[in-house]
Write a structure and sequence with these properties.
By secondary structure, the chain is an alpha/beta fold. Helices cover 54% and strands 9% of the residues. The protein is globular and about 60 Å long.
Length: 243
Amino acid sequence: MMEAVYHILNGDTLKDKFTLPGEVIVARECLVDGDVSGENLTDFWNRRAVYLSKAYSIPSTEYYQKSIPEFQKILSIPAFSTVHLWFERDLFCQVNFWFCCSLINRSDVEVFLVIPSKDIGWSGFANMKTAELKKQILAKERLSKDDIQFFNQCWIAFKHNRFLDLKSLADASKFDFIKQAINAHLNRGIEDDNQPTIVLKRIIEDLKTVEFSAIFESFCEREGVYGFTDIHIKRLLTKIQKE
């Protein structure tokens, strides 16, 4: 019997140009933002649906129909399968990646990480052509059971706001991108006057404009490590304007 091959992608942008053979699963979430509490997965998903509905006007029905089923597919991956995790180095991607690792924290599948080269900066898979994606998988890195458990620990520490645990994990990690992502998260802190907010205020002052496209482009250039989307930045700007 041939082993099953799965590709867990970091979003629909990558899915739209993905042609490699295998079952495709899309991690449709932005776990870097909002309530990630919950006693179990059902409770967790219910809380996410409520948060995304309130914060971003995403209908709960859409979350239940388009996001949860994808994560349930991860839980249903059969034994002896090969799983490729296509995620980038930025914080947004990393938190989703950690969560996916928590769902495949098992010993009966072979797991690989496919991550863009540091040479292309923070643009990641978005600017890669289909042919480049086919080459990218050749540079995949096998993740050991200990690696998967490590990323699971990152998720647990993030989920419970254990900043000291996150710092310890960053210091102990053999993966250079982990320290960058965790430090970016720690710089967000739990107060409103955090690094992303400070940078956005500076950008508005420097550019002397409220034009969103210019502000968003500048933020991505200065703080690409966060991987924030336009929707996320718009929400932060709304908070700033209300101050």
